[in-house]
Specification:
By secondary structure, this protein is mostly helical. Helices cover 74% and strands 0% of the residues.
């Protein structure tokens, strides 16, 4: 039997198939799971700050609520349901502003700088409360605070030197075990909070090592661009 010839229309997927094939990747990017393709447009060094965007408004609100959280926690013995809920909402705001940026396309240079700064401020606020009331192991809290301050200084130094540190995936995910530990211990005493803190601390230290390596490579590239290019190609 003769086989019918195929034309372009036969090879082209139907609209329903195209929608099904593209829905998964689009959903992953919308939720921030898939971050391939490099930094979003408008967030790179030299781009305008664009302070008046919807995602930045969420970041401003998160920063404004931090002293409220600390005051609520210090008004009790550190364990307070309302303070824990507020801490959770401020932490969840990190996902909200990212989602709003992806939905609206309102990416900005200020948002790229403000987002990790707000996360570090939130972690440090939780560290202060937990350290004061001994809700979590103090030695781990001190190491975590030192790491956050080191990263703050390193990022500022890198910006002055023309280096734009990109958040790596370990560092991006490490903040969640730490924030969960603070949230849980604000509610109740639990060994799970200690374990979560240790996991987050290990991840943050691993992320810091990656940042330091990136900084060293950047410094070498500035001193000897040809040597750095040759070493990176081998």
């Amino acid at each position: 039997m003769a086989r019918a010839a195929l034309n372009d229309d036969d090879l082209r997927p139907s609209p329903d198939e195209s929608v099904r094939a593209g829905f998964g990747p689009r959903l992953k990017r919308l939720l921030g799971i898939d971050r391939s393709g490099g930094p979003p447009p408008g967030t790179q060094k030299g781009e305008p700050l664009r302070p008046f965007t919807i995602p930045n408004a969420v970041s401003y609100l998160r920063l404004a609520l931090l002293p409220v959280f600390v005051a609520m926690a210090f008004a009790s013995d550190g364990r307070d349901v309302a303070a824990a809920v507020l801490y959770f909402l401020i932490a969840w705001g990190d996902q909200l502003d990212g989602l709003l940026a992806r939905v609206t396309g309102q990416y900005s240079r200020l948002g790229a700088l403000l987002d990790p700064l707000t996360d570090r401020a939130l972690v440090l606020a939780g560290v202060i409360v937990c350290f004061e009331f001994e809700l979590l192991p103090r030695w781990a809290l001190l190491v975590l605070a030192a790491r956050e301050l080191f990263m703050l200084c390193m990022s500022q130094y890198g910006l002055r030197q023309g280096m734009d540190l990109q958040i790596n995936m370990i560092g991006r995910w490490a903040v969640w075990p730490v924030m969960f530990a603070v949230f849980l211990t604000l509610l109740t005493e639990s060994w799970v909070a200690d374990v979560s803190l240790y996991i987050g601390l290990g991840m943050t230290l691993a992320a810091t090592a990656i940042y330091v390596q990136a900084g060293i490579r950047f410094s070498r590239a500035r001193k000897d661009p040809r040597g750095a290019q040759a070493s990176s190609s081998t």
